[in-house]
Known about the structure:
mainly alpha
Amino acid sequence: MKQVYEExxxxxxxxxxxxxxxxxxFAEVWSRQVxxxxxxxxxxxxxxxxxxxxxxxxxxxxxxxRSGELTPAELRETVVFLTLYAGLPRASRLSTMVxxxxxxxxxx
Length: 108
């Protein structure tokens, strides 16, 4: 989970749901060897854009850029690619998110 989200996943609720879900997602799915974390991240970005899940999208864009999985140029190319599949309104929002993120990260 730390590699995917750059955090350790603390903050378990009283019912244990988060822990059970996180264990399955990260121990069994994200750690499989067929696809790299980078490839999984790209697939997930496309899904999040298509579903309009901006909050999670921002988290994954940030993690992808800060971890070096994707460069600013690759994030911008992702916007170009997804425009034709997700539609102009969603791609426009994605473009804004990417440019704001790149501005914040490269200023530091």
